[in-house]
Design brief:
The complex is a heterodimer of chains A (about 325) and B (about 400). Chain A is α/β, with parallel strands linked by helices. Chain A has helices at about 20-35, 50-55, 75-90, 90-100, 100-110, 115-130, 145-165, 170-180, 195-210, 230-240, 245-280, 300-325; strands spanning about 10-15, 40-45, 65, 70-75, 130, 135, 140-145, 185-195, 215-225, 285-290. An eight-stranded mixed beta sheet of chain A has the order 3-4-2-7-1-8-9-10, sandwiched between helices. Chain A has a two-stranded antiparallel sheet with strand order 5-6. In chain A, α6 (about 115-130) crosses α8. The radius of gyration of chain A is 23 Å and the shape is elongated. Chain A starts with 9 loop residues before the first strand and ends with a helix. By secondary structure, chain B is α/β, with parallel strands linked by helices. Chain B has helices at about 5-10, 25-35, 50-55, 90-100, 110-115, 115-120, 125-140, 160-170, 175-180, 185, 190-195, 195-210, 210-225, 225-230, 230-245, 260-275, 310-320, 325-350, 375, 380-385; strands spanning about 10-15, 40-45, 65-70, 85-90, 145-150, 250-255, 280-285, 360-365. Chain B has an eight-stranded mixed beta sheet, sandwiched between helices. In chain B, β6, α16 and β7 form a beta-alpha-beta unit. Chain B starts with a helix and ends in a 7-residue tail after the last helix. The chains are: A alpha/beta (about 325), B alpha/beta (about 400).
């Protein structure tokens, strides 16, 4: 039995563009750090919003502490490759000749997935880094790029093993693949919305992750769920308010419209949550509520971290009850 | 100019924007508008087939052109009924077709199996995007369509699409390729190694890192494909010509969220730099704000959380019954107000940064799935000011 999902060390947050991966990654990192684990949140191949959401500024290629026990790091594939080559070619002057050569630029652009491999390699490095005989990080949360690109990254070590028949890269790739596939260490969490396209894509991604790549899955996290329901009776009574004073009628019409809108989303969410559950079987699923705010800031991340914690606990509870019922 | 005039006056409309903003839906809706207005229209996507197919109410969309039946939707009175074709780009297929056209027959199987080729055709940054543009050029030249709508790929940075021709042009730069074609390259770089100690050291390290076969494969690929690459710059120039042409309009699709608008702003700046000017903006999934016009103590022109009690009272008075329902309704209303308020502030700011005269339209956040022609047509009043006439 692998350790429970939150106990694992390496968490990847994967999902379609626009479903809120970065927010969920920030919430998970915050939650783990609050539990006293030395946590590193990693942003891949772009300077996005993760550091800002966690309260960091000027985060770069070196882990920066943004809160007690919580560090953030932005990985750029090119920088990762240069760092790696720095390890193979220890002479500084030579190294700068290499980086400025057109051949090198070309090679980086062309070599099958070298940049992606090095990005994942950097994550591997952080995940296995030791300090004074102890692992440097208890938990690493990776905010991965949109699904298609994520799969490209996660596939890369395997692809590199095949493309580079021998040599250092091949040996590195083998080590990395081993770590990614280890269910004692790694969990790939899928973030989605309870809407048609994200759910369909999530189910497909899941199949690919498991069947093609053999990677260990974590939670399916359904973001921005609408839960309010207004009964038809209530809405009818609102409709019947045409007798209200003229000045209030516009407001009342709008109140009705928003209630209908909320009902609409709640019903769409319910339908696709159903489809999602049917598709993922008994895999753990956690729902996060839609947050109605003017501006999405750090306090929202805190709120989602608490919701995530509650959701994970509820999920664990229901799984335990389920196994009692279904057990021998 | 309105968005309506913009679409009417351009032959090529390219929907750009970051992932998850509803680009595919907007592109399909614009194409439907064109077809209902009597134009021979095609919409291209390189998304997984399912999405565009879904929004057009088709079961499935394979590679190749697929005609969409417009039955049940009325054309604009007086205009001939146009036609609508959906086209899914199969980028692997498009690369393979290039190989078929340009590589000597005996070399083809070797190229197709070459790992370096597979990387280039499947995952080289910009290669999907480039192939979409290549396909666009072919359609423009065919003269078979009056309106071509392109749904750009869901790259994290939509910029990849705009820069694809340049990037692939640089990548396939003839001078560099010739360099790769030199015999010492395929001979394991040993000649070069002997030439220069520094280079020799570097190459030994690279070989150690990647294995000798990778370098040989790159060289083999280029020598087999040399004829194609000789002509490549011409194709890249042609692609730029189409993208920058007078007949082409870039329409930016964005959502009202902070991050998405930030990406959109960046994209619009970059477009100007690349001389692919932005001509229209669609803000999709926007929440509408209610603005009271004075009266009954609901003064001012903004309703915020501080008005919760008052709104609840108005609702309770109108509904009668328990105050609980009224409070919940008021709370829900004010929640949506907060969303809408934040969005409208961000949108105002965003508009300030746009070039002058660029039309901006807002499409509300419909609480329903959009997956057939009728729901696509329901977007028309928001995009174009009115729908096509009813059936």
């Amino acid at each position: 039995m692998p350790p429970s999902l939150l106990q694992r060390r390496l968490h990847f947050i994967v999902g379609k563009g626009g479903v809120g991966k970065t927010t969920v990654a920030a919430a998970l990192a915050l939650l783990l750090a609050r539990r006293g684990r030395r946590t590193l949140a990693i942003e891949m191949d772009a300077v996005g919003r993760l550091p800002t959401l966690l309260g960091g500024r000027g985060v770069g290629y070196v882990p920066t502490e943004v809160a007690p026990g919580l560090h953030v790091l932005s990985i750029d594939g090119r920088a990762a490759l240069e760092e790696y080559l720095g390890l193979i070619i220890p002479v500084k002057r030579l190294l700068s000749t290499v980086f400025s050569s057109k051949l090198y630029q070309y090679f980086v652009a062309a070599a099958p997935g070298l940049k992606e491999l090095m990005t994942v390699g950097k994550i591997w490095y952080e995940a296995t880094r030791e300090e004074a005989g102890d692992l440097r990080w208890d938990a690493i949360v990776v905010d991965a790029p949109a699904t298609g690109h994520s799969l490209q990254y996660l596939r890369m070590p395997q692809a590199a093993r095949e493309a580079f028949g021998a040599g250092l890269v091949q040996r590195e790739a083998t080590k990395i693949t081993g770590l990614l596939r280890d269910r004692r260490t790694t969990a790939i969490h899928l973030v989605t919305l309870a809407e048609e396209m994200p759910v369909t894509e999530t189910l497909e991604t899941r199949t690919q992750l498991v069947e093609t790549l053999g990677l260990p899955l974590g939670f399916v996290i359904v973001n921005r769920v609408h839960r309010r329901r207004f009964s038809p009776g209530v809405l009818e009574r609102l409709h019947a308010t045409a007798t209200a004073p003229a000045a209030e009628r516009a407001l009342l019409a709008c109140v009705t419209e928003r209630a209908t809108e909320e009902n609409g989303w709640a019903s769409i969410n319910e339908t696709y949550l159903g489809r999602l559950r049917a598709g993922i079987g008994d895999a753990p699923l956690v729902e996060l509520p839609f947050l109605f705010v003017e501006e999405f800031d750090r306090s929202c991340v805190e709120q989602l971290a608490r919701q995530l914690e509650a959701g994970v606990a509820a999920e664990a509870g229901s799984a335990a009850r389920g196994s009692e019922r279904g057990g021998p | 100019m309105t968005l309506r005039e913009l679409i009417d006056r351009h032959r090529v409309v390219i929907a750009a924007g970051s992932g998850g903003v509803g680009k595919t839906t907007v592109a399909a809706s614009v194409a439907l508008w064109g077809a209902l207005g009597g134009r021979r229209t095609v919409v291209i996507t390189i998304d997984p087939a399912r999405r565009l197919a879904d929004s057009l109410g088709l079961e499935i969309l394979g590679a190749g052109e697929r005609a969409i039946t417009l039955d049940g939707l009325a054309a604009t009175p007086g205009s001939p009924r146009g036609s609508l074709v959906a086209l899914m780009l199969d980028q692997k297929g498009a690369w393979d077709a290039l190989v078929e056209r340009h590589a000597p027959a005996e070399a083809r199987p070797r190229i197709l199996a070459n790992p370096f080729y597979q990387h280039l055709s499947q995952s080289f940054a910009g290669s999907h995007e480039y192939m979409a543009i290549e396909q666009l050029c072919v359609l423009v030249e065919s003269g078979r369509y009056d309106l071509i709508v392109v749904d750009t790929p869901p790259t994290r940075h939509a910029l990849d699409f705009l820069e694809a021709p340049r990037r692939i042009g640089d990548f396939l730069d003839r001078k560099i390729i010739r360099w790769f074609l030199r015999p010492y390259f395929s001979a394991g770089w040993s000649a070069l190694r002997a030439m220069n100690r520094t280079a020799g050291f570097l190459l030994r390290r690279l070989e150690q890192a990647t294995g000798v076969s990778a370098l040989a494969e790159i060289s083999d690929f280029f020598s087999s494909m040399s004829e194609l690459f000789e002509n490549f710059q011409g194709r890249v120039d042609r692609a730029h010509e189409v993208l920058r042409g007078k007949e082409t309009a870039f329409v930016l699709v964005s959502g009202p969220e902070e991050q998405v608008l930030g990406d959109a702003e960046y994209l619009s700046t970059k477009m100007a730099e690349l001389r692919m000017p932005l001509k229209g903006v669609v803000l999709n999934r926007v929440h509408r704000e209610f603005r009271p016009r004075g009266g009954r103590g609901l003064g001012g022109d903004v309703l915020g959380p501080e008005d919760a009690e008052q709104v609840a009272q108005v609702v309770a008075r109108a509904m009668g019954g328990s105050g609980r329902d009224a409070r919940e309704l008021a709370e829900n209303f004010l929640d949506y107000q907060a969303l809408a308020r934040g969005e409208s502030l961000r949108i105002e700011q965003f508009r300030v940064g746009l070039p002058r005269g660029v039309p901006v339209v807002q499409v509300p956040n419909f609480a329903r799935d959009i997956h057939d022609l009728a729901t696509l047509a329901a977007m028309h009043p928001y995009l174009f000011g009115s729908g096509r006439a009813a059936a």
